[in-house]
Amino acid sequence: MAANLLKEFEPEIESITLIPSDGGRYEVQVNDHLIYSKLSTFRHAEPGEVEKLVETYLKEGKR
Question: 14, 35, 38, 44 - which has most CB atoms within 10 Å?
């Protein structure tokens, strides 16, 4: 996932962090902003979901 995100958004991303946890839980942060949390949603992201969330975050001015 990280490799795909960097390939697609590398010029716009200062940093990307995948935070693994017990039991397959994980969080994705871009530029210190939480993008997706399996800990919060209690489900795996759908294919392309995290990429779309990153794209939306970057388009909305990196809030």
Answer: 35
Coil, helix or strand at residue 18 = strand
Contact between 52 and 7 (Cβ < 8 Å): no
Tokens of 12: 């716009």
pTM for the predicted model, two decimal places = 0.76
- Helix or strand run (H / E) with residue 55: helix 49-59
d(CA 9, CA 44): 21
Token look-up 């697609």 returns 8
Residue 4 · residue 51 · CB < 8 Å? yes
Asked if the model's pLDDT at residue 2 lies above 80, the reply is no
Q: Is the pLDDT of residue 25 over 90?
A: no
